[in-house]
Design brief:
Blueprint lengths: L1 H17 L2 H4 L7 H22 L8 H6 L4 H48 L7 H30 L2 H7 L5 H15 L1 H8 L1 H9 L9 H26 L4 H4 L2 H29 L6 H25 L8 H19 L4
Helix pairs in contact: 1-13, 1-14, 3-11, 3-13, 5-6, 5-8, 5-9, 5-11, 5-14, 6-14, 6-15, 13-14, 14-15
């Protein structure tokens, strides 16, 4: 029962993340670098900070909780993850929500799940390690099928249809960016693993286990924010778009900030849900290790549902849709395998 509750909580967070790109479409008169930076303030600083406050034991402060542990590694992994987060946004730009997230999250799922297990000394060819490896392979199979559906869509659609669905559609460039995004994004889970001492200190201090991972999440997202902020400010200077933040009319500025905040809280919900969900997996080492892959699989499923809703697959043909649904079904199976 605990595992089912954990899965449902992670699923809710995943749905939030997969929905986070929808509010961005409501932003007006801002260049990419402008809205990416502003939503990042909310997604990687404001809401993670508020979430971390929930894990502060009585009699302590957030700074005293973090100050007694080595915060360098979570921050460093966060900086590396920031490269993935930056290119992840670009993959959406070139491939759309469905295909961009599928490729990026598939790569992220494999590296983010298996590397911590290997670094932790787990044997991937026997016992729990083998179950974990099989689960990841099934996940990758499902994502590969979805990727194939994306290639079929590209073949079946005219250039006009591609541009109508995705303004800056570029398959080759998008695939390269998405693969880089996936590899670097896997550093997020490595950052979470490197902050185990902070999590344990919060729990032993009396913090609610549901929120104990939140301070570590804050450190990783802070590192990611540094990377993204540097790039966005560079683009502001290069493209002379810095004036856009305040040159728009007041009602548009308020509109943009509100939708950036909405996108930020929806994005953060995936890791808030992950931390809560993992607290229900403490009795199953395999589910704990596989939780990252579960989150990525759910993100891919929900992102493709949004892709259908946003008509990104319109005009791609019946065969393509069947392949897409098959890939999503394989991902659902991958969620069950470790529990079995």
């Amino acid at each position: 029962m605990n595992i089912l509750i954990g899965l449902l909580i992670i699923a809710l967070g995943s749905f939030g993340q997969s929905s986070s790109y929808v509010p961005i479409k409501k932003i007006k008169d801002w260049s990419w670098e402008c809205f990416w930076l502003v939503q990042g303030v909310f997604a990687w600083l404001v809401f993670p900070f508020l979430g971390a406050l929930l894990a502060v034991p009585e009699g302590e402060t957030l700074f005293s909780l973090l100050g007694t542990s080595n915060i360098a590694m979570p921050l460093l992994y966060g900086v590396l993850w920031g490269v993935g987060g930056l290119t992840f946004g670009l993959s959406m730009r070139y491939l759309g929500v469905a295909l961009g997230q599928s490729i990026s999250l598939g790569t992220c799922s494999a590296f983010g799940t298996l590397l911590p297990a290997v670094f932790g000394g787990m044997d991937l060819f026997s016992g729990n390690g083998l179950i974990l490896l099989i689960g990841v392979c099934v996940t990758l199979a499902g994502i590969a099928v979805i990727g194939y559906a994306g290639s079929l869509r590209a073949k079946n659609m005219t250039e006009e249809e591609k541009r109508a669905a995705i303004k800056d559609f570029a398959l080759t460039k998008g695939l390269l960016v998405a693969l880089l995004a996936g590899v670097m994004s896997a550093c997020f889970n490595l950052g979470l693993e490197s902050g185990t001492a902070i999590l344990e200190k919060a729990v032993t201090g009396g913090a609610n286990e549901l929120f104990a991972l939140n301070p570590v999440i804050l450190l990783v997202t802070m590192g990611g924010f540094l990377t993204n902020a540097c790039y966005c400010i560079y683009q502001n200077i290069k493209n002379k778009t810095g004036r856009e933040y305040f040159s728009v009319p007041g009602h548009i500025l308020m509109n943009n900030v509100l939708f950036c905040a909405l996108a930020g809280v929806l994005w953060y919900s995936q890791f808030f849900g992950l931390g809560m969900g993992k607290s229900y997996f403490t009795g199953s080492p395999v589910m704990l290790a596989f939780s990252w892959s579960i989150l990525m699989s759910l993100n891919v499923i929900f992102s493709n549902v949004w892709g259908i809703v946003l008509k990104e697959w319109k005009g791609s043909g019946t065969k393509t849709v069947i392949v897409l649904v098959t890939g999503m079904a394989i991902l659902i199976v991958s969620l069950i395998i470790p529990n079995l």
